[in-house]
Amino acid sequence: MADSRLPKQLMYGELLHGKRSVGGQKKRFKDCLKISLKELGILNDSWEMLAQDRPSWRCKLTKGAKAAEAKRIAEAKQKHNVRKSRPAFTKSPTADYPCPQCGRTFRAQIGLFSHLRTHSNRQQTNL
């Protein structure tokens, strides 16, 4: 491929001037290609020679894509199994929260907290 072609300039080009953004760095097209080649099982130093032989390149990409997809599915299933194997959350029957002023019980602490505001409003109106 000629050096003046845009795909070659993107793949081999580097920033001559300018600065990176603060925080996380933005990925370049070249960075995304390297990650994709790694997922497909193609080495960064040998992909150029492999790409010159079109049939072997397509075969390698197809096999790599199938392997990457199988790996992704296996990881998703494993993650699903881990998530589903956790014991279900069961609320203990003694986790009631009684109001210290009127004795009313609540199932959740936030309910008691909200209820206590009504007691503080009554005390303010009585003054």
TrEMBL record:
Entry annotated with the keyword Transmembrane helix: no
Domain C2H2-type as annotated: residue spans: 97-124
Residues annotated as signal peptide: none
Listed Pfam families: zf-C2H2
InterPro entries for the chain: Znf_C2H2_sf (IPR036236), Znf_C2H2_type (IPR013087)
Region (Disordered) location: 73-94
SUPFAM superfamilies in the cross-refs: beta-beta-alpha zinc fingers
Protein name stated in the entry: Uncharacterized protein LOC118478942
Lineage of source species: Eukaryota, Metazoa, Spiralia, Lophotrochozoa, Mollusca
